[in-house]
Amino acid sequence: ACVALWWRRRYPLPVAVGVVVLCTFSEVASVPGLVALFAVAARCPARVSAAVFLGSVASFAVYYSWRPAPEAPLWLLVGALVAGHAAVFGWGLLVRSRRLLVESLRERAAMAESAAALRAEHTAHEAREALAREMHDVLGHRLSLLSVHAGALAFHRDAPAEETARAAEVVRENAHRALQDLREVIGVLRAPVGELPLPGITDVGELLEETRRTGTAVVLHDGPGVTTGEHPVPETAGRTAYRLVQEALTNARTYAPGAPVTVTVTGGAGDGLVVEV
Hints:
The protein is mainly alpha-helical and 277 residues long.
């Protein structure tokens, strides 16, 4: 029985069954039997451990029925036997539950770490998408102005000096603004969220004024107080409306150069915001 305990951690159930059988014939095997019972309770399911517990008690009962101990009363012997087995059995269950708890906590920690990594990756992906959209909207508008006027300078080489100077000033101004916009967009990577000023519905007027300076005829029809800020528009909706007008003006210069453009912005609280170009 003592030699069999060497394999109690790798094969707890077979070792316990073998030692319990030995306890039926030998009182000396009682101590290895308790050790084997502890190993089963600490490593096997509770139902299996309970079966081994009952089998061990039954084996001692069979042994003492064959070889009674006259020096001790039967009730005292049975009580000590059951109490000793119950104490070892409970100790083994406690060790098993603690080990399972530690394993569960480790699995939860690993799952939490994996979830945190996924959330960080998702957040970084959203930030990259937002940055790409901002760069497309901002630089697309500015670079289209540069392309139009640089093309005009290259095509009309014999244009009057005044027109050439005006076109060159527009190119210079928009190149400077493009650099500023790019610097602000790149700053999103380092600045906290909400720190950088983003365009809104109140900036549509300035956007149209820039477009007029490039030679495009633009007319604005807006509802009462919509683009002036008298009736506040939610930040997201205002920024979306601004980008919509900006992209539409860029497309107008690209696909309909010289055509007049009409921008209509209407709406209000409860009615929604309508932008038509």
